[in-house]
Every structure is written in C-alpha cells, then in structure tokens.
From TrEMBL:
Name the record gives this protein: Polyamine aminopropyltransferase
UniProt source species: Hydrogenispora ethanolica
Main location, first listed in the record: membrane
Compartments (UniProt record): Cell membrane
Catalytic activity entry: S-adenosyl 3-(methylsulfanyl)propylamine + putrescine = S-methyl-5'-thioadenosine + spermidine + H(+)
Bilayer topology annotation: Multi-pass membrane protein
PANTHER family, alphabetized: THERMOSPERMINE SYNTHASE ACAULIS5
Subunit structure, interactors included: Homodimer or homotetramer.
Gene3D superfamilies: Vaccinia Virus protein VP39 (3.40.50.150)
Pathway it works in: Amine and polyamine biosynthesis; spermidine biosynthesis; spermidine from putrescine: step 1/1
Coiled coil (UniProt feature): none
Length: 535
C-alpha cells in the first residue's frame, strides 16, 4: 500500500505540474513566466511539505493520517476546474509576471504541499529498523521518482491531446480520493481485525474513522456528479457557439461561430477568423497588409508561410495571384492543420503543400536543399507565427533570419507580422526585431496597421518587410508601385493606403531607435522580457 501511494503521489504531482501551464495559458499565454511561476510555486510547496510532513509523521505516524492528507489533496485538485477560470481572469489584471505567480499559488501550492508530505510519512511508516532506514528511504524515493517520470510522460505525450486538461485534472482528483478511500477502508478493516472484539457503539474514535470514509465517498460522488453534469465552458462563448474545442500538444484550440463569423482561438488569443458568407474577405486587417510583400516582389511564383492559423492568408494569396505555382506552409501543430481544413476551408490543391514541422527546422532544411540546387528558392516568405502572448524565441533570432535569407531568391523579401509599439515602454520587442532584421537584410521597412503617428505608444500589429534588394525605396516609391499594381488589378487588396503608413525607419535609426539594444541571438533572445518589461 505504501509503495503504491508513493508511486501515485509522485505521478500525480508531476502530472498536475505539466497541465498547470495549460490551466494558466487562457489568461497568461505560454511565456517563460508561466513555467517560472509553476516551478517556483511547486518547489516552495515541496520544501515546506517535506519539512512539515517529517514533523507530522514523527507526531502522528498513522496510515489513516496519510489517507486524510490524500483525501484533502483530492478534493482540492478534483474541483479545481470548476473555479480556475474566474481566478485566472482576476489574476490577469496584475500582469503576466505577478498575475501568473498569484494564479499558480492559488491553484497548485496547497495540493503540491499536501502531496509533498507523503514521502516523509511513508519513510516513517515503512521504517521498522534504524539500521535499514537508508535503504528504506532510497527505495521509496526511487519509487516516487519513477512515478514522476511516468506521470510526466503520460500527461505530456498522451493525455493532454487525448482527453484534455479538464478531464485530466478531474481524473487526478478522483484518483487521489480513490486512493484515500482505499487507505481509510484498509485502516478500518485492520483495526477491526486486530482489536479482537467489536468496538463500542458510541466510540468516538470509531465514529470519526467512519465519518472520514463517508466524507471521502461523498466527495467522490459529488465530483462525479458535477464532472458529468457541468459542461466545459470558455470565458467568452456559449456552448451553442462553440463548434470545436480541444487541447492539442501545443494549444487549447477553440473554434466558435457568432453569426456568420467563425473564429479560431489558441489559448488566450485570436488567431484567425472567416466570414462564412465571404470566405475570402480578410476579417483581421493585418492579413491584408501582408500583401505589401507583393509590392516588393510582384507576381511571385513560390511562397513560404511560417504559421498557419486558420489559413486565411495562404488561401487568399492562392486566389489572388495566378502567378503562384507553389505555396508551402509549415505549421508545428497537426491539430491546427486539421482545423484549418475542416472549419476554415483551407483548399486542397496541388499548389498548396502543408508541412507539420517546426518552422526553424523546416527553413534550415530548405536552405540546405536550395544551396545544393535540389529545389528553387522562394520569392516571398511570410512569418505569421508570433502573437501578443507567445513569441517563439527561436523564430526571432539573427541565426534564424540568416536561414530565412538563404531560402529567398536574390530579389526576394520576407514579410513578418509582429505585435509591438513604435514608442514607449512596450516598444522594446519591435525595436529589437527591427535591429536584428537590419543586421541580416540590406533594407527593412515597417508598416503599422492602422492610423498612427511618431509619438504613438499603442501596441498593434506591425508588418515588417525585409528585402534582399540593396536599394532603399522611398515612401513615394512604395506608394507609386502600390498604386500602379492596384490599378492594374495585379493586387486586389488596398495596398496604396497601406503603403502610406510606412515608418521613416532611417530617421528612427538616426534618432536612436536601436540605442541600447543587442541583437536577438540564439544565445540571448529575451523576447518575453522585451514584450513585458519590468519597468
């Protein structure tokens, strides 16, 4: 019984920590602050739990007390999904650092502390001879670690995409309650067996033990009832509006429909949208700005998109530009590919090839194949893999941009959608990205989405275009080329108006826009800190 308890406690603790990032993601994204908060909270709980568990085990070396601890942990974990959403929303008002730490404390400190007491309790109960206490502690620690390994592997590799976070957490709570019930019943049966005579009907100790068993049974029954009868809810849609919802290996994916508009969400952010009556209409304005890349490289034949979402941009480019012979899309999440095809009308055509792979790895492999003359380079590369809450740092470094340059034709360009501000405390990420692009490409152009001025500190979508063309285009050149292509019908989006938002990047550089910034590199790319500065 002790070995099983130690093994399952280790497995449940690590499983809870693995799903913790998904519980926090709807309000805080998937930044490094999430994992930092989780690790700090769990380690603090383990420290106090080991200490407190050792003291309690010396005072009350009772298997029934171990069952009671497991029961309390089971109640807390099992009912966690019923109240996590409002607490997440409340804590999000404190920002990504403080908010994620407070939410992690609320969700995971107490159950982690309770589970941490199991190991010292088990060592105390299993030790019958001081001469073998080291061997006993070693065995139990190894069993606990083995449980932690199994819990981590099962949760991250199989359970999250198979049954989802909510079902996992409920199952962990039910497992803890079931284990507590097993221990409490075993203790009661053992007491009856060894007592030799029936306990007095009015015995206070006997009544207390029976009440413990009854309360654990009641908690299990209530958990099962609410688990089955309470539908999974999001914070912004009714159940009738949700068309699809699932935890993938990378995101909590939601497809919802309001009227004729179908939306795609990853965790806490909008990713794509489609008007069912006008499926080629760009719902999000920044996707129309991506067509400025065609002003830089008219009549492209080969394109690469890094990041798929709902696939609205690749779908639109394929429709608008007959010159395109091949469009490659690389998307790391296979579930996103299925959703784009099933819910957002991603076309199935020989011209469109979708690769389920990490974008950095794909670009590196393509760069090698292009250098070997096996395939042709791309005319345009569109990077749409960043969001307000998630910046894959390895897709924002000098080394990655060098690989992107290697897959481009000599007159090619890269178009990147970045969330940032031109001025103010939230401008660090955009300035660092521009600085890094400028170290790789001869020319870099910045187009804010919407109306702006040079004192604007508002965060928005920014379209950054970097070209291999060494000649600098003036704002008038951009406007004239955009106007000519639009009038000729070679670009259908309103690129003349988009071109007018061009930022005078040389003047920003002259005024110290890059001052104090290092290049983003594989060794140093603090994208989370730049996006959410301390001061």
């Amino acid at each position: 019984m002790l070995y099983l308890t130690v093994f399952l406690s280790g497995a449940i603790l690590m499983s809870l920590e693995m799903v913790g990032s998904r519980i926090l993601a709807p309000s805080f994204g998937s930044s490094i602050y999430i994992w930092g908060s989780l690790i700090v909270v769990v380690m603090a709980a383990l420290t106090l739990g080991y200490y407190g568990g050792g003291r309690l085990a010396d005072r009350r070396p009772d298997l029934g007390m171990l069952g009671l601890i497991l029961g309390l942990a089971g109640v807390y974990v099992g009912f966690l999904p019923f109240w996590s959403t409002p607490v997440n929303i409340l804590c999000s008002g404190f920002g990504p650092r403080t908010g994620s730490l407070l939410a992690a404390l609320a969700f995971f400190f107490l159950p982690s502390l309770l589970l941490a007491t199991i190991s010292p309790f088990a060592i105390k109960l299993a030790t019958s001879n001081l001469t073998t206490i080291g061997n006993t502690a070693g065995h139990l620690s190894a069993i606990s670690s083995a449980g932690s390994i199994i819990g981590t592997l099962l949760t991250s590799f199989f359970l999250i995409p198979a049954i989802g976070v909510r079902n996992i957490v409920h199952s962990l709570g039910a497992l803890l309650l079931g284990l507590a019930l097993l221990i409490l019943v075993a203790v009661e049966l053992e007491r009856r067996r060894t007592a030799g005579a029936p306990e007095a009907a009015g015995s206070r100790a006997g009544a207390l033990r029976r009440w413990r068993i009854f309360l654990v049974l009641l908690a299990l029954a209530l958990l099962g009832f609410f688990w089955r009868s309470t539908p999974q809810r999001t914070s912004f849609y009714t159940p009738e509006e949700i068309r699809y919802e699932r935890d993938s290996l990378y995101h909590h994916v939601i497809v919802a429909q309001v009227g004729t508009r179908r939306n795609l969400h990853f965790d806490n952010s909008y990713q794509s949208a489609m008007d069912l009556d006008q499926p080629l209409e760009m719902v999000f304005g920044y996707t129309s700005y991506l067509h400025l890349g065609v002003v830089a490289v008219p009549e492209p034949e080969r394109m690469l998109f890094i990041g798929l979402g709902g696939g609205s941009a690749p779908k639109k480019f394929l429709h608008d530009y007959p010159s395109l012979k091949q469009v490659d899309v690389v998307e790391i999440d296979p579930e996103v590919v299925r959703v784009a095809r099933d819910y957002f009308a991603l076309p199935r055509t020989a011209k469109l090839r979708v690769y389920t792979q990490d974008g950095r790895l794909f670009v590196d492999q393509r760069a090698g194949a292009i250098a070997a003359g096996k395939i042709r380079p791309y005319d345009l590369v569109v990077i749409d893999a960043y969001s307000e809450s998630t910046i894959p740092y390895h897709l924002a470094t000098y080394q990655f941009f060098r690989s992107v340059r290697r897959v481009l034709d000599r007159d090619g360009a890269v178009v990147s959608n970045v969330i940032g501000a031109i001025k103010g405390s939230r401008s660090g990420l955009l300035r660092a990205m521009g600085h890094t692009y400028a170290a790789v490409f001869p020319q870099v152009y910045l187009f804010p989405v919407g109306i702006w001025d040079e004192s604007d500190s508002y965060e928005r979508n920014m379209i950054l275009i970097a070209t291999r063309n060494p000649r600098r285009w003036s704002p008038r050149t951009w406007r004239d080329r955009a106007e000519a292509l639009f009038r000729a019908g070679r670009i259908r989006e309103d690129v003349p108006s988009y071109a007018q938002t061009l930022v005078d990047e040389p003047r920003l550089r002259k005024n110290g826009w890059y001052e104090g910034l290092s290049l983003l590199t594989d060794d140093y790319a603090p994208v989370d800190t730049l996006q959410n500065p301390l001061l």
